[in-house]
Amino acid sequence: MLYQAGVPEPRQLATDDDVAFIMERFMELEARPGIKECFTLLREAGFTVWAFTAGDAKRLRLDKRDPRAYKTQLESFGGEEAWFAAAHMWDASAAKGCGFKGAWCSIYEKEPCVDLFGEMDVMADELPEMARKIIAASEGKKA
C-alpha cells in the first residue's frame, strides 16, 4: 500500500518490526461503534446482513480491487434489490458501480470525496442512522 501511496521504497519507511507492531495493534481492533444496532435494525426490517471483507487474494485469485468480487456477491441476490454499505467510500462506490445500491457511513473517514467517488444512495454519520436510511429508501424491498 505504501508504494501505491507514492512511497518508492516502503521498506525504508517501515521496518519488519514496524509491520509487526502495526499487525499486533490491528488484531486488537474492535467493531465500529453502532454496528450491532445497525445490524439489528436491518435484520428486524427483513434484510439479510452479510459481511464482505478482504480475504486470501492468492487463494481466491481475486480481491476487492476486481469488480468481479462485487458482481459475484450481487449475483447471489438473484436480481433483488441489494445494498452494499461501507465505511470506506471507495468500497461503497465500487459496489455501486457493479449494480448494488450504495450506502456510506462517515464514522471514520469523514470526507466523502463525492467528486472522486460519486454520490451514494444513502449517506450517514453513524451506522444506526445509515441502517434507518437504507430501510426508508428500500420502500419495503428486502435484500
Rounded to an integer, what's the Rg over CA atoms? 17 Å
CATH class of the largest domain: Alpha Beta
Which superfamily, in CATH terms, is the homologous superfamily of the largest domain? HAD superfamily/HAD-like
Low-confidence stretches: none
Number of helices: 8
Number of DSSP strand runs: 3
Give the CATH architecture of the largest domain: 3-Layer(aba) Sandwich
* Major sheet summary line: 3 strands, parallel
Query: Beta-strand level of the residues, as a percent range?
Result: 5-15%
Keywords: Hydrolase
Organism: Colletotrichum fructicola (strain Nara gc5) (Anthracnose fungus)
Protein name: 2-haloalkanoic acid dehalogenase, putative
GO molecular function: hydrolase activity
What topology emerges from the helices and strands here?
Blueprint: H1 10-13, H2 16-26, H3 35-44, H4 57-60, H5 67-75, E1 83-86, H6 89-97, E2 101-105, H7 114-117, E3 122-124, H8 127-138
Parallel strand pairs: 1-2, 2-3
Helix pairs in contact: 3-8
Description of the molecule:
The chain has 143 residues and is mostly helical. The protein folds into two domains: 1-30, no CATH class; 33-138, 3-Layer(aba) Sandwich (Rossmann fold). Helix content is 44%, strand content 8%. Helix 3 runs parallel beside helix 8 (127-138). The relative contact order is 0.15.
Brief descriptors of the model:
143 residues, mainly alpha, Rossmann fold, three-stranded parallel beta sheet, 8 helices, 44% helix
